[in-house]
Design goal:
Elements lengths: L1 E6 L9 H15 L3 E8 L12 H7 L2 E4 L6 H10 L4 H4 L4 H13 L4 E5 L7 H7 L3 E6 L3 H11 L3 H21 L5 E4 L2 H9 L6 E3 L18 E8 L5 H21 L5 E4 L15 E5 L4 H7 E6 L9 H8 L3 E4 L1 H4 L11 E2 L3 H13 L1 H18 L2 H17 L2
Parallel strand pairs: 1-2, 1-4, 2-3, 4-5, 5-6, 6-7, 8-9, 8-11, 9-10, 11-12, 12-13
Length: 403
């Protein structure tokens, strides 16, 4: 098959859950003999210089970028709130130059499938229909409105809470309205697929989790791990991560350091961290963006995922499991991921439970190592990229053959 993959942000380098998910789809399809062209939004927030990317990657994917200014502007947000009923989350991705570049691509080449990454790009469906006979498939990494509903629920500031409710309501209306305009949809979790179906989505659907490369039989050397240590990795400018980290630091970290005064907490991830005052908390090391995420993850002991307003599937958890990490997550954080509580991950939602889960790993190294080993095995068995890509190809072939 010949596939055009339209991405809402650069899929390479694969540094966060979103880019890892998109890149692993690209690589999986190419590895199995299919042709993939990547056309991606480039933004100030996630700007990538194509000249700095590996030449083989650019050549193999025939990569092209189209710049879109998605920056949040106070005047635009206020105007949208007062004078429009559109979703500001979605309208920020609507761009005439990007549309023109997409038309040019569709006029030069023919494709069997055009895969759109996230509903934020649904504006371009009509453009694709008008210039291509390809089937249009949505890859939905999240149910986007669920994230915003959960953020609104957790927000304590009354004004901000009300604004988040408005954003969530508008996003929900547009997200659900566009679903049946696609020829097919695949989600990364069964739960997300069920949500779409329950809201009237009746196009062909499948769920295909984000895969990982399990061809490398990594040996996890426990002697090279900084034990005990705690870490978090994720975009520091993403509101659910900010919310979860703030909760952990305010409710759990100070209690942990009283019992374990030498324990360190490492925070890694790209994005603006000006909201966070590391000096306020003892033994917290703010690293910012790191060059080698896998090496960082391998070097630390306990991964925390205190998430209260996500959706979809946390790719960093899959990556952490594949690298043999002991992970403590909330129920929302682990949503959509095959797991067994206290066997290959630890699940906790209240502050005292969360602290106790971490303490159980700090006080019993044998238990810690058991969780690490089981996590690695579960990732290998359930999330190999080649097997999941074959499932995706089967679905796309079926979609392609429909008239």
């Amino acid at each position: 098959m010949k596939i055009l993959q339209i991405c809402n942000k650069p899929p390479f380098p694969p540094q966060d859950g979103g880019s890892i998910g998109m890149h692993n789809v690209t690589q999986g399809l190419i590895d199995l003999g299919h042709k993939v062209k990547v056309f991606s939004v480039n933004t100030s927030k996630h700007f990538v210089d194509i000249n700095q990317l590996p030449k083989d990657y650019v050549k193999n994917t025939k990569l092209e970028f189209g710049f879109v200014d998605t920056n949040i502007k106070a005047f635009d947000a206020l105007s949208n709130l007062i004078f429009s009923n559109r979703s500001y989350n979605i309208t920020r991705f609507e761009d005439a130059d990007f549309k023109a570049k997409l038309i040019s691509i569709l006029q030069k080449e023919t494709f069997d499938i055009v895969q759109i990454e996230s509903i934020f790009l649904n504006y371009y469906i009509d453009t694709i229909r008008n210039h291509s006979d390809a089937k249009i498939v949505l890859r939905a990494p999240n149910v986007e409105f669920i994230i915003w509903e959960r953020m609104a629920k957790e927000e304590s500031n009354p004004l901000k809470k009300q604004y988040l409710k408005i954003l969530a309501k508008r996003l929900k209306k547009e997200e659900l309205a566009c679903l049946n305009r696609f020829d097919a949809i695949y989600t990364v979790t069964q739960n997300d697929m069920d949500i779409f179906k329950s809201h009237g989505c009746n196009v062909p659907m499948e769920f295909v989790p984000t895969g990982i490369d399990v061809t490398k039989d990594l040996i996890i050397d426990m002697n090279t791990i900084e034990y005990p240590s705690i870490f978090h990795i994720g975009a520091l400018d993403w509101m659910p991560n900010q919310e979860g980290l703030s909760w952990f630091l305010e409710n759990i970290w100070s209690k942990l350091t009283k019992d374990f005064p030498k324990l360190k907490f490492y925070i890694a991830g790209r994005g603006d961290a000006s909201w966070f005052d590391a000096a306020k908390y003892p033994n917290v090391v703010l690293l910012g963006e790191i060059e080698d995420a896998a090496q960082f993850i391998k070097s630390k002991a306990i991964m925390i995922v205190p998430l209260f307003s996500g959706s979809g599937m946390r790719v960093k958890i899959i990556e952490g499991m594949s690298l043999g990490k002991a992970i403590v997550s909330t129920s929302i954080g682990i949503e959509g991921i095959i797991h067994a509580d206290k066997e290959n991950v630890l699940i906790a939602n209240k502050a005292e439970e969360y602290k106790n889960a971490i303490v159980s790993l700090l006080e019993n190294k044998n238990y810690f190592e058991k969780i690490c080993k089981n996590a690695r095995q579960s990732a290998k068995e359930n999330y190999g990229n080649t097997a999941l890509t074959k499932k995706l190809i089967s679905f796309l072939e079926e979609v392609k053959s429909r008239h």
